[in-house]
Amino acid sequence: AVALSSDARTVASGSADGEVILWHALSGEEQFRIQGTGPRVQALAFSPDRNSFAVGRDDGTVCLYQVDSGELTHQWNRGGWCVAFSRDGKQLATGSHDGAVHIWKLPAATK
């Protein structure tokens, strides 16, 4: 999976071993790496304000991380096959392999 931030400065890539890497888009320099911890990364998305990003995994988990630090700020256990933020960044939509769609209200600190 791959995602580009709205300002086109940061690229996120996810792999089959669960590893996620954030890259500086212009230089190609690695900003940080979240070590592979299991399930394949199915989907990635940046929040509209570029402060956080969501990672969907094929086991159905969705994790929300801070862009500047890679800190895990929230996790849901339903719908890791696709992820998308609302335009205002207050909600996250997730889809799962069984066709279910969930709309999650995001914690205030991630807006």
What does this structure look like?
With 111 residues, this protein is an all-beta fold. A hairpin with a 5-residue loop joins strand 7 and strand 8. It starts with a strand and ends in a 6-residue tail after the last strand. It has no helices and eleven strands. It has a four-stranded antiparallel β-sheet, with no helix packed on it. The model has no long low-confidence stretch (mean pLDDT 92).
List keywords for this structure.
four-stranded antiparallel beta sheet; mainly beta; 111 residues; 49% strand
Which residue ranges are poorly predicted, with pLDDT under 50 across at least 5 consecutive positions?
A: none
How many β-strand runs?
11
Integer-rounded radius of gyration: 13 Å
Largest β sheet strand count, sense and barrel closure: 4 strands, antiparallel
* Mean pLDDT over all positions: 92
Query: Structural class given helices, strands, pairing?
Result: mainly beta
Could you give the distance between the termini?
23 Å
The count of helical stretches stands at 0
- The secondary-structure element order is EEEEEEEEEEE
Backbone shape:
globular
Proportion of β residues? over 45%
Strand order, largest beta sheet: 1-2-3-4
Give the proportion of residues in helices. under 10%
Give me a quick take on this structure.
The protein is mostly beta strands and about 110 residues long. The chain contains no helices and 11 strands. The mean pLDDT is about 90.
Write the layout of secondary structure elements.
Layout: E1 2-4, E2 10-14, E3 20-24, E4 30-34, E5 41-46, E6 52-57, E7 62-66, E8 72-76, E9 82-85, E10 91-95, E11 101-105
Antiparallel strand pairs: 1-2, 2-3, 3-4, 5-6, 6-7, 7-8, 9-10, 10-11
